[in-house]
Design brief:
- The chain is of the alpha+beta class and 195 residues long.
- The chain has one domain.
- It has a three-stranded antiparallel beta sheet with strand order 1-3-2.
- α3 crosses α4.
- The chain is elongated, with a radius of gyration of 29 Å.
- About 10% of the residues have low confidence.
């Protein structure tokens, strides 16, 4: 009889212990858990939003070395900036070619796209860092945040300068028309981003 009551008490005790353990697993996720602290707004994110006058991009990178984290963040931001410039000038070129009549539209468009890609790559030398912040994580690693910008006029001037060296493209190029479309696309991009 003693064995049965001891066995019954042991079973009840185990049920209670496992019951409490299962309650612990339903706790909320804390900021120190595997998920990490959720950031509502990243540093430098606002400074990395394009508007009507500037192409902008932001980025972040993590490293055990602070200067390496900053370099990685800058490289990523520049890559995003080049992608943004290429995307925008592709839209401008497509609209420009569609609104004008060319004998060999596809050849003009291809050459013009190559030219704008080269200009975007060159324009990166005119990048201005508009925001730079860093933090130290609990793990001891560094996280760098950065935002960069390029003036849209630098891109337009680069395209105009390149065109002056290509007589064939220059024949079909209407500077005023291209700049009008370029400015419209910059305005559209700014609206999409809430500026």
């Amino acid at each position: 009889m003693k064995v049965n009551s001891f066995l019954g008490m042991s079973i009840i005790l185990l049920v209670v212990v496992f019951g409490f353990e299962s309650c612990k697993s339903k706790q909320k996720v804390s900021s120190k858990s595997e998920v990490g602290k959720i950031l509502e707004e990243l540093p430098c994110e606002d400074a990395g939003r394009s508007d009507k006058k500037f192409f902008r991009a932001s980025s972040m990178a993590t490293s055990s070395d602070l200067s390496l984290a900053k370099e990685k963040a800058l490289l990523l931001a520049k890559q995003r900036l080049v992608t943004l410039i290429n995307s925008n000038t592709k839209s401008v070129t497509d609209r420009y070619v569609n609104e004008r009549e060319f004998g060999q539209a596809s050849e003009f468009e291809q050459k013009f796209e190559n030219l704008t890609r080269e200009v975007a790559d060159e324009t990166i030398s005119n990048v201005v860092v508009t925001c730079e912040k860093a933090s130290v994580l609990d793990s001891g690693k560094y996280r760098a945040f950065i935002a960069v910008e390029v003036d849209k006029d630098d891109v337009l001037n680069g395209i105009n300068n390149r065109l002056s060296n290509d007589a064939k493209l220059q024949v079909d190029y209407d500077k005023k028309k291209f700049e009008d479309i370029f400015n419209q696309e910059m305005g559209k991009m700014a609206e999409e981003r809430g500026y």
